Amino acid sequence: MTTVATPSERPAGERRAGRLRSLSKLPNWAIATGVLVVLVAVSAYVRTRALSGQFWIDEAITSGISTHSLGAIPGILRHDGNPPLYYLLLHFWMRAFGTSEAATHSLSLLFGLLTIPVAMWSGWSLFGRRVGLFAAVMFATNAWLTQYAQETRMYELMALLGLIATTAFLHGFLYRRRRYLFLFAVALALMLYTHSWGIFFFIGALIALIPVYAVTEDRRGLLRDAALTFAAAGILFIPWIPNFIYQATHTGAPWSHAPGLGTPILISRDLLGGDRVTIALIIGCIAGLGALFTRRLRRSHDAVALWTLIVLGLATLLVAWLSSQITPAYVSRYFAPVLPAILLIAALGCARAGVVGIAVLIATVIFLVPHPGQFAYPIKSDMRNVAGQVGPLMHRGDLVVVAQPEQTPLAWYYLPGGLNYANSIGRVSDPSYMNWVHAQSRLQRANPAATLGPMVSSLRRGQQLLYVRPLTEGVENWEAPWTRLVRRRAAEWGALLQADVRHGVLKQIAWAPHDYQEALFEPDSAVLYRKVS
Amino acid sequence: MPAFGTGPVSAATTLTCGESTPLIFYSGGVSSSGWLSAYKTGATRAVAAACACAVVLSGCSGLSKPAGGRGAAVDPRTGPPNYLACLRSNRLTVSEQGHNTLQVGSLPSGPTIVFEPTAGIAEGQQIQGKAQGAEVIGAALLYPNHAPGAQLTVVENCLGQGVAEPKEPGA
After folding, report:
1. Contact with chain A for residue B19, Cβ under 8 A
2. Higher model confidence: residue A277 or residue A4?
């Protein structure tokens, strides 16, 4: 007699297999939605551990610029060096949600969380469901995205746009789905309007056409489409070109060095989250992508897509690196445009690596998720603390002198209203932004005695002067031409103030911080003087 | 002086009297008759004599430590890193003043360098407004005075040797 086992009598392995089969029968939209809800929730938790962390220099400048009217922002940006899109968006965001650190960080968080569904769409539409799921996990847990989701800067938006542009590039040019060319042109133009590295991505994408050109059967059509698409992005950028030229010829990043050969370390440490994650991903990529380099598969769609992504990322970095030998602008927070290519390669590799890929994915999540604090540090500067201690002692009309000029907006953000501002270049009429136009030569020319003397003289007896200067920890941050001069000027101004104390003109009233906690970016100290004669 | 020389490594490998295990000679249970007995007595003596020599050679004879102690002061100016040598190798005239100060050239134009015990103390001096005229580079307070920029660059580069970078969060 034959018996049929009831479900409860089936072996456990068979029951699990049955459940997996029923899961696989779920419609794609249900799987996608379920996974996305979980990933976005986990990512939102991880990326809000330092949401109310204090600003550092760049964030204060960014929020300061965005407090101005829409019409004024492009003009102010001529002195800063960045394109306007993020500042305009932040302007509206701050009107809706306020100007606190948490409020402004939330805009970046939103862009960071949006990368998760977009990554799933990207991987899924390009390589299939499995790659889509892997990509979503990688974007949800990525260390770089976690860090900059809590920073009031444009990097997270740039990564989102970079992901859209990279995906549209592959669809439009490699798979010849021409409707994506429009999306690519718009995303590319928005990248140009978001950060100067949009130009490097523009050139990198042009170079990435080479592997596509090598395999396409319609080379003429590819060239025509490329010309039209890149020209469209360029035309959309035309309105900003006068400002761009002005910025390129008048501003720069004198605080930065020409880069060396440390890019792999920057990618491993800052983009991926450290050597453990990097090694895990490399193992996944070798296991999953090795076959694509064999004779049998090297002209397959996946192989050509892989090469295109590699060339896109490498070419963008190479162009940026070469450009930075002349005008340095090469720090890992600018790497947003290449992050999507790197993570898509990793997702493709791990998804093709079977059980090894799943192990790598689990390891990556374990390495990244439980320790979010190591990628987003709440004490980026100590100005909030400094201002909290000396701010209550200050009165309307007192003078704040900031030895490091670009810290002026940071002091302005945290100190009470009604104060006057100056820095080691001279008086500052609008402390909400930094005027980088010929900043190096202006600081070089500003004689400390001739600049400070009239400021102290203009104070009435009883009025106060707050001298804010950077704590020059370490050496690397103080080797660039700008920072070296800032450190020197800070001492020269300090010596003059000390002389005024000796001569009985000023009296030291207070100093801060009383409880200095190590800050991530160029912390400050402050001494408050009162004019006594 | 210990037989194996001075210095931390030699000292660590040398037994001193206070630290050594007592030597124990067992005499019970040995036959006391004939040539064997005489041989054993002689052998015991030889072993004892050898041990005594070893003890003497290993430094137990010198129970007193050097009159000046074994300490050796590190001059912050000569390090390591040797800032003084760095400055002089760059053709700067440098004089040592006090126990922690270097004067490059002469005042009022030459920069003055004061070495604090730790970088934290130097930083604390700045925070409290006690070193307003100084650049803080590691544990050094560099007072530029009226030195030309090129000279200051050389001094800053020398003082930058061996300065630890701020710890990155999570590191």
Report:
1. no
2. A277
Give the contacts of A46 (CB within 8 A, at least 6 positions apart). A141, A146, A368, A369, A372
Q: What is the pTM of this model?
A: 0.84
Selected for mutation to probe chain B from A472, A476, A493, A514 (highest B CB count within 10 Å) is A472
Span of A118-122, A368-372, B13-17 with lowest mean pLDDT: B13-17
**SS3 at position B132:** coil
Nearest Cα of chain B lies from the Cα of A519 at a distance, in angstroms, of 9
pLDDT of residue A27: 85
Residue B167, C-beta contacts closer than 8 angstroms, at least 6 positions apart: A518
> Which CATH architecture does the domain made up of A383-531 adopt?
3-Layer(aba) Sandwich (3.40)
How far apart are alpha carbons A279 and A272 in whole angstroms?
Answer: 10
B166·A473 Cβ contact <8 A: yes
Residue pLDDT, tens place only, A229-241: 999 999 999 999 9
Domain boundaries, chain A: 27-374, 383-531
Length of chain A: 533
Closest Cβ opposite residue B167 in set A469, A512, A518: A518
> Using CA atoms, how far apart are residues A144 and A112, in angstroms rounded to an integer?
10
Residue B51, pLDDT score: 65
Closest Cβ opposite residue B137 in set A472, A516, A518:
A472
Tokens at A157, concatenated:
């938006």
List Cα–Cα distances, B99 to A127, A140, B74, B96, B115, in angstroms.
70, 57, 10, 8, 9
- What ipTM score was computed for the predicted complex, to two decimals? 0.81
Per CB-CB distance under 8 Å, the chain A contacts of B146 are none
The tens digit of pLDDT for each residue in A419-437 reads 999 999 999 999 999 999 9
Could you tell me where the DSSP H helices lie in A262-404? 263-266, 275-289, 301-326, 339-352, 354-368, 383-390
Q: Which residues does chain A have within 8 Å of residue B166's beta carbon, measured at their own beta carbons? A: 473-474, 518, 520
Q: CB-CB: which of A479, A495, A527 is closest to B129? A: A527
Q: Which phi and psi (to 5°) does residue A98 adopt?
A: 100, 180
Q: Which of A487, A497, A503, A528 to substitute to test the interface with B, most B CBs within 10 Å?
A: A487
pLDDT at A248 over 90: no
* Residue B15: strand, helix, or coil: coil
Report the relative pairing of strands B140-143 and B135-137 from DSSP bridges.
antiparallel
Q: What is the CA radius of gyration of chain B?
A: 29
Amino acid, single-letter form, for residue A466: L
Cα–Cα distance measured from residue A356 to residue A361, given in angstroms and rounded to the nearest whole number:
9
DSSP class per residue in B54-74: HHIIIIIT--SPPTT-S--PP
Q: How confident is the model at residue A93 (pLDDT cuts 50, 70, 90)?
A: very high
